[in-house]
Design goal:
With about 150 residues, the chain is mainly α. It contains five helices and no strands. The longest helix is centred in the middle third of the chain and has 47 residues. It is rod-shaped.
């Protein structure tokens, strides 16, 4: 025999259409196990309705929206920072390789080429120090907010 368990669940909750209710009642007239199951489900439904509904704290939705907005903003800022960093690294490598290539092409003296490369290396060190200071300052700012 085919037992309409889904209809029993819906009937216990009072969510059947009139056609479904009629079909279920005709089945229940001939099926004692389904009648017992429906009685158990109705008892459970009544018990669940008697349990008080928990309430969310006031301002929860606003705080959640603010956190989501902050997280989205931080993710966007991180993507932008990554793109800027990639651009700056490529630009710096171009500026490093260009004097060497030009010096080789135009026969630049070794002394001038040495100072040009030393200047480029100093720029790399200064740029690295500046990036380190910026990252440390941002992390320190982030730590103070949390």
């Amino acid at each position: 025999m085919n037992h309409p368990l889904e209809l029993l669940n819906l009937a216990a909750s009072g969510l059947l259409t009139s056609e479904e209710e009629h079909a279920l009642r005709s089945h229940l007239d001939t099926c004692p196990p389904c009648r017992r199951e429906l009685a158990v489900l109705e008892t459970l439904t009544e018990g669940l309705r008697a349990v008080p509904m928990p309430m969310a704290p006031s301002g929860l939705a606003a705080r959640t929206k603010a956190r989501l907005a902050a997280a989205c903003g931080a993710a966007e800022e991180q993507r932008l920072s990554g793109a800027i960093l990639v651009f700056l690294v490529l630009f710096a490598w171009t500026l490093t390789a260009l004097p060497w290539a030009l010096g080789q092409s135009f026969g630049m003296s070794k002394t001038l080429l040495f100072w040009l490369l030393a200047w480029t290396a100093a720029g790399w060190v200064a740029g690295g120090a500046a990036v380190a200071v910026l990252i440390y300052g941002k992390r320190r700012h982030d730590w103070s907010l949390s």
